[in-house]
Design goal:
By secondary structure, this protein is α/β, with parallel strands linked by helices. The protein is built from 14 helices and 9 strands. The chain has 2 domains: 226 residues, Spore Coat Polysaccharide Biosynthesis Protein SpsA, Chain A (Alpha-Beta Complex), CATH 3.90.550; 148 residues, no CATH class. The protein is 56% helix and 13% strand. It has a 7-stranded mixed beta sheet with strand order 3-2-1-4-6-5-7, sandwiched between helices. Strand 1, helix 1 and strand 2 form a beta-alpha-beta unit. Helix 5 packs parallel to helix 9, helix 7 packs parallel to helix 9 and helix 10 packs antiparallel against helix 11. The protein is elongated.
Length: 381
């Protein structure tokens, strides 16, 4: 399979190395026997764009708005069937891009580089990144998304242009790296991983993390974790929410008629209130997780099923079915309160359960209304 390769790389004040980087790209394409272009997305204030053009690159000048934003800005101008990404600082050896081209030629849609499967030059990666940050965040993403990556932060990666469009990148900064990987997994793209060679900075060049400050890697790591949570509502919202809802409902139903003794333990009003709290919080978490999953659009089958089931009429009917018995149970308590001269010596457990039903009814109606708003906006887009 033949194709045209676009090497698309952001650049910010890399006049010391960008010329040699462009030369490496063309050398790598010749070695891989592939036609292509080098496209530099530039936000520099030095001579980087002029130097890149002198060495044969096509330069797209954009405002300084972040790594992820650079790729979003570049998308309409990419000419290739395949896209290879990376850094323009000579830390990734673009002379050895043949494994990416071979993988794309074999039919893979998303090809991730791995420094741990390849080689890391001594001094190229801070020990904190190499032995803690990258392995831990990679492990977390693999657990959340069922993937088997070894290096999710490797900046050198390739994909078909169609895959890049389907990924629909939204992250503006460093977190684009995790968004790409997790969306590729969620979209069930044909994924491959190839080894890369990672080199230390050239003498006289300072990495962007060091230019920003000591806190930059920690901010980048947190941003990546936020993206993982954003696109993984199941482990963070849906699963714990469903568990809390079930436990809360069971506890509330068990105590609806009054205190219950199990062995030497007596469950009474306090346990019932705990059940109400668990049920309402769990129901909220479950609903928010469903909305997040629907809004992401990464599981079309789930979205289609939800659209059929969560109609406004059904949601309103369910809310009414919950509200009517809830109001009835609490009406009994109110009637007794009035007949006793607006005094109550005790609170019936059934009345507390009635309040739970009213809360769940309101949450159901609110979720249905909000989902219809979200779905109408998503459909119009």
């Amino acid at each position: 399979m033949s194709g045209f390769l676009s090497i698309v790389v952001p650049c910010l004040n890399e006049e010391l190395v960008v010329g040699e980087f462009v030369d490496w790209c063309f050398e790598g394409m010749r070695a891989a026997d592939v036609e292509g272009e080098v496209m530099i997305i530039d936000s520099s204030t030095d001579r980087s764009p002029e130097i890149a053009e002198e060495h044969g690159a096509r330069v797209l000048r954009v405002p300084k708005r972040g790594l992820g934003r650079a790729y979003i800005d570049a998308l309409p101008d990419i000419k290739g069937d395949w896209v290879l990404m990376g850094d323009s600082d000579l830390t990734y050896d673009f002379r050895q891009l043949a494994p990416f081209v071979e993988s794309l030629r074999s039919g893979h849609e998303f090809v991730m580089g791995s420094r741990f499967r390849g080689s890391i030059e001594p001094g190229a990666m801070p020990r904190l990144h190499q032995f803690f940050g990258t392995p831990v965040t990679t492990w977390i993403l693999n657990r959340l998304y069922g993937t088997r990556f070894t290096d999710i932060h490797c900046g050198m990666r390739a994909m078909t242009l169609d895959a890049l469009r389907r990924i629909d990148l939204t992250s503006q900064g460093w977190e684009y790296a995790s968004e790409m990987v997790l969306k590729a997994a969620r979209l069930k793209l044909d994924i491959d991983e190839v080894p890369v060679r990672f080199l230390k900075d050239r003498e006289g060049r300072e990495s962007h993390h060091r230019r920003t400050g000591w806190y930059s890697p920690w901010v980048a790591g947190w941003d990546n974790l936020k993206v993982m949570m954003l696109y993984a509502p199941e482990p963070f919202l849906i699963a714990p929410g469903l568990a809390a809802l079930v436990i809360g409902l069971l506890l509330s139903l068990l105590l609806i008629a009054g205190p219950v003794t199990i062995g030497s333990v007596q469950l009474s009003l306090n346990a019932l209130l705990l059940g109400v709290v668990l049920a309402t919080i769990g129901y909220s978490a479950l609903q928010l997780g469903v909305l997040a999953k629907a809004e992401s659009g990464l599981d079309p089958g789930f979205t289609r099923r939800l659209r059929r089931v969560a109609t406004f009429n059904r949601g309103s009917a369910l809310a009414l079915m919950l509200a009517v018995p809830g109001v009835a149970l609490d009406a009994i308590l109110v009637a007794r309160w009035i007949s006793n001269g607006f005094e109550l010596s005790s609170i019936d457990h059934s009345a507390v359960f009635g309040l739970l039903l009213i809360l769940l009814a309101f949450q159901t109606f609110a979720f249905t209304l909000l989902y219809q708003i979200v779905e109408s906006r998503r459909t119009s887009r």
